Amino acid sequence: MHAPRVAACIALGANIGEPVRQVEAAFSALAALPDTRLIARSSLYRSAPVGYADQPDFVNAVAIIETALAPQALLDALLGIERAHGRVRDFANAPRTLDLDIVLYGDRVVRDPGLTIPHARMLERAFVMLPLSEIAPDAVVPGHGVVRELAARVDAASVAQLQRMPA
Questions:
Q1: Exactly one of 87, 112, 138, 148 is catalytic; which is it?
Q2: Which residues pair with residue 21 across a beta bridge?
Q3: Which comes out higher in pLDDT, residue 27 or 94?
Q4: Which position among 21, 99, 108, 138 bears the catalytic label?
Q5: What share of the chain is helix, strand, coil (3-state, %, to 5)?
Q6: Which of 60, 30, 53 is nearest to 130 (CA)?
Q7: CATH of region 6-163
Q8: Taking a C-beta distance cutoff of 8 angstroms, is the pair 4, 95 a contact?
Q9: 96: annotated active-site residue
């Protein structure tokens, strides 16, 4: 018997190396995860860094995957993809070759050490909410509301769409 599949939303970001190429490669890596398929991908967006400002702008996107991986197994797989792309965790909000975060996992709420779903700061981050709204405007953030409405409330001044998602 197969494990049930869940739609999960993954935020992608990079700002050192070749960020556009790295985010594009991450979409492929997500699609290649076991028991997982890529359902949708947003356009790419450029955003100003948050927290530590003395670094290059980020390239961001959001993917929707359908996966049989449990939340912790999915997180472990995402950390493996980050490491394969040269991610080093020097300090909080440091520049990075690739950052992958689970922002939604079906309608589940997870509060475990090292894993919070929905992502704790997603509602404040236009670089997550705009691409998420592009591909899943009717998705629900448990305990908060519909993505389209939540995205309309974020300050999007530091975010710009770079390219439209492929048809």
A1: 87
A2: none
A3: 27
A4: 99
A5: 25, 30, 45
A6: 60
A7: 3.30.70.560
A8: no
A9: yes
pLDDT surpassing 80 at residue 164: no
pLDDT tens digits for range 142-162:
999 999 999 999 999 889 998
Respond yes or no on whether the N-terminal peptide bond of residue 113 is cis (omega within 30° of 0).
Answer: no
99 is catalytic: yes
Is residue 101 annotated as a catalytic residue, yes or no? yes
Q: Is 66 exposed, middle or buried (0-12, 13-18, 19+ CB in 10 A)?
A: middle
Task: Please state, in angstroms and rounded to a whole number, the distance separating the CA atoms of residues 141 and 119.
Answer: 10
Phi-psi region of 85 (alpha: psi -120 to 50; beta: other; left: phi over 0): alpha
Rounded distance between C-alpha atoms, residue 119 and residue 97, angstroms:
20
pLDDT score, position 29: 96
Kindly report the length of the chain.
167
pTM of the complete model beyond 0.85: yes
CA gap 24, 14 in Å, rounded? 10
- Tens digits of residue pLDDT in 78-124: 999 998 877 666 655 556 778 999 999 999 999 998 899 999 889 99
> What residues contact residue 31 under an 8 Å CB cut-off, 6+ apart?
37, 38, 65
